[in-house]
């Protein structure tokens, strides 16, 4: 196999992409790498200029100083060329459109990492499936990084753990070394499907928790939604061949708790706005950033239905986002379901 280049690239200079590039840079500095090459691809020239010239991303991470070794470009081909690691950090619905350019310039030994917590609408594809299909990427060169990873807290260097999942443990370890640092601790596993699905569905559950907030419900309601949300996530993970242990880990319970508890979560915030009576359009406009749950929920329920998996909270969220269900009738609908024993089934 060709040697893997040490240039590291993040595609997407939003809040998580920029923070992840900082994680890579701080890890390289900590490990004593001489002149680390860490590049962000930004869609907008003013964002690239802000990062390269001022080491700031004012739009997405105001007040955060970025490492001196970070630079940014708007040229995706130039960014990807010669990189050993290509990290995808753009909204799920935008990924497919960028893959032909990435494929044309991808180093034959490069690893692709997805930070994306969404499914593609229309195909229900996970990012691992999209990359395999559109990049012709073998499983051992793909990984997903997911966990309780609210970008702003990590940008502020608050201690955080995450999961790096790849079918090939050596690939996961290679990435773990390059992300590990003074405030970021990756754990590795091989359950790509489980980690991806946990990250996607927790955004849908966070919408439901946000609606509880917006309606003025307290912690009992929210804990009930979180716990039953985890149960329906488990059913989908297992039906797709993922592992039950992943649910109890950082990418499962860890991320669900962080997102559903945090005022920083865009998905929870979007749900709160819906609960307070805003329309889907109004809630989306308020956010100005990606709330993957709103976009992916239809793909989640489609995937679940195709696999015969019951996901009542996701179904209800899908109906709310489609404008077919009023948030005021949500609780009654969920509570009126048939009585059954507690558990995953
Ligand atoms: N922000 C966070 O705390 C975390 C986010 N994620 C996931 O990371 C992914 C990226 O999220 P964020 O960086 O937070 O989003 P963001 O909303 O902060 O930024 C999105 C980025 O994608 C770019 N973008 C939007 N439309 C595009 C298009 N058509 N083509 C190319 N680029 C486009 C934007 O310019 C921006 O740079 C999402 O899937 C999200 O669920 C995962 C973990 C944590
Ligand atoms: O995925 C996240 C934390 O791990 C961020 O969640 P939001 O996209 O809801 O802000």
From TrEMBL:
One of its GO terms (molecular function) is glycerol-3-phosphate dehydrogenase (NADP+) activity. Sn-glycerol 3-phosphate binds at residues 117, 147, 202, 255, 265-267. NAD(+) binds at residues 12-17, 151, 266. Substrate binds at residues 117, 266-267. Pathway: Membrane lipid metabolism; glycerophospholipid metabolism. Residues 191-329 form the Glycerol-3-phosphate dehydrogenase NAD-dependent C-terminal domain. Its EC number is 1.1.1.94. The active site is at residue 202. One of its GO terms (cellular component) is cytosol. It catalyses: sn-glycerol 3-phosphate + NADP(+) = dihydroxyacetone phosphate + NADPH + H(+); sn-glycerol 3-phosphate + NAD(+) = dihydroxyacetone phosphate + NADH + H(+). Residues 8-171 form the Glycerol-3-phosphate dehydrogenase NAD-dependent N-terminal domain. Catalyzes the reduction of the glycolytic intermediate dihydroxyacetone phosphate (DHAP) to sn-glycerol 3-phosphate (G3P), the key precursor for phospholipid synthesis. Belongs to the NAD-dependent glycerol-3-phosphate dehydrogenase family. This is Glycerol-3-phosphate dehydrogenase [NAD(P)+]. It comes from Citricoccus muralis.
């Amino acid at each position: 196999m060709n040697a893997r280049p040490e240039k590291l690239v993040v595609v997407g200079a939003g809040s998580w992409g920029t923070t992840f590039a900082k994680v890579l840079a701080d890890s390289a500095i900590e490990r004593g790498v001489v002149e680390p090459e860490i590049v962000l691809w930004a869609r907008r020239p003013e964002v690239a200029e802000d990062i390269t010239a001022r080491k700031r991303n004012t739009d997405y991470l105001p007040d955060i100083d970025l490492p001196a070794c970070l630079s940014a470009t708007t040229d995706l081909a130039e960014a990807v060329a010669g990189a050993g690691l290509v990290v995808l950090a753009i909204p799920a619905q935008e990924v497919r459109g960028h893959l032909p350019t990435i494929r044309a310039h991808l180093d034959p030994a490069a690893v692709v990492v997805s930070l994306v917590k969404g499914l593609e609408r229309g195909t229900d594809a996970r990012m691992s499936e999209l990359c395999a299909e559109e990049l012709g990427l073998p499983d051992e060169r793909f990984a997903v990084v997911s966990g309780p990873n609210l970008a702003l807290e990590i940008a502020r260097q608050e201690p955080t753990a995450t999961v790096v999942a790849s079918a090939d443990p050596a690939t996961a370890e290679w990435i773990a070394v390059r992300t590990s640092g003074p405030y970021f601790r990756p754990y590795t596993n091989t359950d790509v499907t489980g980690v991806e699905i946990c990250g996607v569905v927790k955004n849908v559950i966070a919408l439901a928790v946000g609606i509880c907030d917006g309606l003025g419900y307290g912690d009992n309601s929210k804990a009930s939604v979180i716990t039953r949300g985890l149960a329906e996530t488990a059913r989908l993970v297992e039906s797709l061949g993922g592992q039950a242990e992943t649910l109890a880990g950082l990418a499962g319970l860890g991320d669900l708790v962080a997102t559903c508890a945090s005022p920083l979560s865009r998905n929870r915030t979007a749900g709160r706005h819906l609960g307070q009576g805003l329309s889907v359009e109004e809630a989306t406009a308020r956010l100005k950033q990606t709330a993957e749950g709103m976009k992916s929920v239809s793909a989640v329920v489609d995937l679940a239905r195709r696999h015969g998996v019951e996901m009542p909270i996701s179904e209800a969220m899908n109906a709310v986002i489609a404008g077919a269900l009023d948030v005021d009738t949500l609780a009654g609908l969920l509570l009126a379901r048939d009585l059954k024993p507690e558990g995953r089934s």
